[in-house]
Amino acid sequence: MRLLSGLAAFILIGWGAGALWTSVVGSDDLEAVRQVAESRSAALTAAMRVVTWAGSAWLLVPLAVGCCTVLLRRGLLREAAAVALSLGGAMLISAAVRALVSRPRPPVEHLQAVASASFPSGHSTQASAFWLSLVLAARAARAPSAVTLSAAVIGALLVPCVAFSRVYLGVHYPSDVIAGVLLGSGWATFVAVCTEDRKVSLRSRAPS
């Protein structure tokens, strides 16, 4: 119930923030999208088309399944659940908020086919939730510091790159990707706290 309530709260917060931003600011950050579009080059475009996959559900879902399988084989059920819930919840949050806010995509050339609304960036939401959930799961599982640090470095590099790639490809405003990162990282942290609290509760009830 706590996770379901949190999921609803994140959707409402995202909806409220998106509605407020689009009604007050509108598309004032369009100039930033146009400036980025003017700096496009063949090499950078090719790189951004690859980088943006680090936030795609087509890549993250198989990765999450693989990570959860490894965690389950090590008996880390709650850590596996946290990773799955972080990514699944992030996908649901971004889809629901996009439908509620219904912000049109930037009126520039899109270098990637898109069909849904613009706010928030689904790639940014999913990437931040998934990569942060891996770091938090590694810490909760008391993994070697090298593993946790590696996951943190990879996430710290990939998430901003994914966010920038969405603006570069012309399919999102800067505010879309910022909102996505905040929603995704906030949700992953919330899930980690809920699962960790449950572990502590179970330990406290265990007979001494």
Features:
208 residues; mainly alpha; 8 helices
Write a brief structural summary:
The protein has helices spanning 2-24, 30-38, 42-51, 57-73, 77-101, 122-140, 145-168, 174-205. By secondary structure, it is mainly alpha-helical.
Polypeptide structure, described:
The chain is mainly α and 208 residues long. The chain has one domain. 76% of the residues lie in helices and 0% in strands.
Low-confidence stretches: 200-208
The share of residues in helices is over 70%
Number of beta strands: 0
Compute the number of structural domains.
1
**Structure classification:** mainly alpha
Question: What order do the helices and strands follow?
Answer: HHHHHHHH
The total of helices stands at 8
Query: Could you tell me the strand content as a percent range?
Result: under 5%
> Please, what is the average pLDDT?
88
Q: Span from first to last CA?
A: 29 Å
What is the rounded Rg? 18 Å
Task: Describe the global form.
Answer: globular
- Largest sheet, strands/sense/barrel: none
List the topology elements.
Blueprint: H1 2-24, H2 30-38, H3 42-51, H4 57-73, H5 77-101, H6 122-140, H7 145-168, H8 174-205
